[in-house]
Write a structure and sequence with these properties.
By secondary structure, this protein is an alpha/beta fold. The chain has helices spanning 17-22, 49-60, 72-92, 106-121, 140-149, 166-172, 195-204, 224-227, 252-256, 292-308, 310-329, 356-365, 378-383, 400-416, and strands spanning 30-31, 34-35, 37-38, 100-103, 127-131, 152-156, 177-183, 208-212, 231-235, 246-250, 268-271, 276-278, 334-336, 346-351, 368-369, 371-373, 389-393. α5 (140-149) links the parallel β5 (127-131) and β6 (152-156). The longest helix has 21 residues, at 72-92. It binds 4'-deoxy-4'-aminopyridoxal-5'-phosphate.
Length: 419
C-alpha cells in the first residue's frame, strides 16, 4: 500500500466532513479560479485515496488474470477478486457470495435480467410493471424485450410531488404481471420509493421484483434479505468506486434457473462443438476476463464507507438536503421539481426565464458542478412538462458552505438574465 497518499480517517467518533474531504484528492482543485464545488454526485462520485491507492497497488504489484493461472500472482489476484465479492455480499447482506454477479454497472445488470430472466421466464402477453420515474436503463431493456418476445410494459404514474401513486401501482398489478422493476431512489427527483411495500405487493401477485439501486446504495444501508427483493442492481462508480464495475444481486434459485447472458471463457465447465456445460454461480454470468481491479477497488470503497458508517452518511446527507431545500426555496423564481416527503440527497430545480443548460454553464463558472438536462429520464420530464432540470446531488463530502456557494451562483445566473 502506498503510504504517501493514504489519508484514511479510520475510527471517527463523529461525522467529520473536513476529515472526509481530505480523503478525496479531486476536491482540492480549483475550477475557473474557484474552489471546486462538486454537486454532480448522482452522475458519478469522486474517489477517496482508499480506492485510488488500492487500484494503483493492484496494477503495480498484484496484477494477473483471475481464476485461470496456478501461479502466485494469479492466485493472489483471484483471492482479492473473490474477497471483493464477499465485501459486496456483506454490504447488501446477501445470503451467499454466489448471489453477487459482477457486471459493468446498473445498466448491464438490468440488461442481464431482461435477456436471461426474460428468455427463461417470460412470454408474449406477460406484463412488466415499471414506474414513470425510471431511468432509461430501466425502461429500454424492457422495450427491447417486448420487441423480441411480445411482453407488455405497464407504467405506474407519479403525482405532482414526484411520488409513486401506490393505488395506481396496485391497480396495475394483475394476473399477467411477471416482473416489477422499480428504482429505489429516483436519480432525477430524489424520491425514495416505498420498496418494502412494492416488493410485498408484487410477491402477493406472484411477480418477481428487480430494484434499481444505482442511487440508493451510496446513501442508505440496503439489506436484500430483509427486503426480500429478487434482484438488486447498482454501479460502483456512484459508490465512490471505479467505473466499469457494478453488481447484480439475484436470489440463488432464480439465478440458477436462468440461462447464461453471454458465452465465452470463465462461464463454462466443459466445451465441445456439440455441447457445452456451464460453470457454477456466479461464474455462469461472468463470461470473459472481468474488471478485476474494478471489483477490488469497489471492495475498497465499501470498506471505506463502512468505516464511516452508512447511517452517519445518510444523516449528513439528509441534513444537507434539508438545508439546500430551504436555501433554494428561498430564491424567488426558483421551482423545485420533486418534492416528495421521502427524498435522498437530490435537488432538481427550474429557474424562471433561464434555460437549464445556461444555469449549468453559469454555475460551472462559479466552480459549481451540477447536471442540467433530462437525467436519462425523458418520460419523467414529459410528465412534468419540462425538457429538463438543473440537478444538484449531494455526497458525504459536501458541506453547507458549498450549498451557500450554489445559492449565490444561482442568484448570479438570475442577475445575468435580468431576473
Ligand atoms: N438507474 C439509475 C436510477 C441511475 O441513476 C443510473 C445512472 N445515472 C443508472 C440506472 C445507470 O447506471 P450506469 O450508467 O452506471 O449503468
Amino acid at each position: 500500500m502506498n503510504g504517501n497518499t493514504q489519508r484514511i480517517n479510520i475510527g471517527r467518533d463523529a461525522f467529520d466532513v473536513e476529515a472526509i474531504r481530505a480523503d478525496f484528492p479531486a476536491l482540492r482543485q480549483t475550477v475557473h479560479g474557484r474552489a471546486l464545488v462538486f454537486l454532480d454526485n448522482a452522475a458519478s462520485a469522486q474517489k477517496p485515496f482508499r480506492v485510488i491507492d488500492t487500484v494503483r497497488q493492484y496494477y503495480t504489484d498484484d496484477y494477473a488474470n483471475v481464476h485461470r493461472g496456478l501461479h502466485y500472482l494469479s492466485e493472489r489476484a483471484s483471492d482479492a477478486f473473490e474477497a471483493a465479492r464477499g465485501k459486496v455480499r456483506g454490504f447488501i447482506n446477501a445470503r451467499e457470495d454466489c448471489e453477487i454477479v459482477f457486471v459493468r454497472g446498473t445498466t448491464e445488470a438490468i440488461n442481464l435480467v431482461a435477456a436471461s430472466f426474460g428468455q427463461s421466464h417470460l412470454k408474449a402477453g406477460d406484463e412488466i410493471l415499471i414506474t414513470e420515474m425510471e431511468h432509461h436503463s430501466n425502461i429500454v431493456p424492457w422495450q427491447l424485450l417486448g420487441e423480441r418476445l411480445g411482453t407488455v410494459l405497464k407504467v405506474a404514474p407519479v403525482n405532482d410531488a414526484g411520488e409513486l401513486l401506490m393505488d395506481e401501482f396496485e391497480r396495475l398489478l394483475g394476473p399477467r404481471t411477471r416482473l416489477v422493476a422499480v428504482t429505489h431512489v429516483s436519480n432525477a427527483l430524489g424520491t425514495i420509493n416505498p420498496i418494502e411495500r412494492i416488493i410485498a405487493l408484487a410477491h402477493a401477485h406472484g411477480a418477481r421484483v428487480l430494484i434499481d439501486g444505482a442511487q440508493s446504495v451510496p446513501h442508505t444501508a440496503v439489506d436484500v434479505q430483509a427486503l426480500d427483493c429478487d434482484f438488486y442492481a447498482f454501479s460502483g462508480h456512484k459508490l465512490y468506486g471505479p467505473t466499469g464495475i457494478g453488481v447484480l444481486y439475484g436470489k440463488r434459485e432464480l439465478l440458477e434457473a436462468m440461462p447464461p447472458y453471454q458465452g465465452g471463457g470463465e462461464m463454462i465447465r466443459e466445451v465441445s462443438f456439440t455441447r457445452t456445460t456451464y460453470a457454477e454461480l456466479p461464474h455462469k454470468f461472468e463470461a470473459g476476463t472481468p474488471h478485476i481491479v474494478g471489483a477490488i477497488g469497489l471492495g475498497a470503497a465499501i470498506d471505506y464507507l463502512q468505516e464511516i458508517g452508512l447511517e452517519a452518511i445518510a444523516r449528513h446527507e439528509d441534513e444537507l438536503l434539508a438545508y439546500a431545500t430551504a436555501r433554494l426555496q428561498d430564491i424567488p423564481g426558483l421551482r423545485m421539481v420533486g418534492t416528495a416527503a421521502r427524498k435522498a440527497g437530490i435537488a432538481s430545480f427550474l429557474l424562471d426565464g433561464v434555460h437549464t443548460h445556461d444555469v449549468g454553464t453559469i454555475l460551472d463558472r462559479h466552480g459549481v458542478a451540477v447536471r442540467a438536462g433530462h437525467h436519462c429520464a425523458m418520460p419523467l420530464m414529459t410528465r412534468f412538462g419540462v425538457s429538463g432540470t438543473t440537478r444538484a446531488s449531494f455526497a458525504l463530502y459536501n458541506t453547507r458552505a458549498e450549498i451557500d456557494t450554489l445559492a449565490g451562483a444561482i442568484r448570479h445566473a438570475q442577475e445575468l438574465f435580468g431576473r
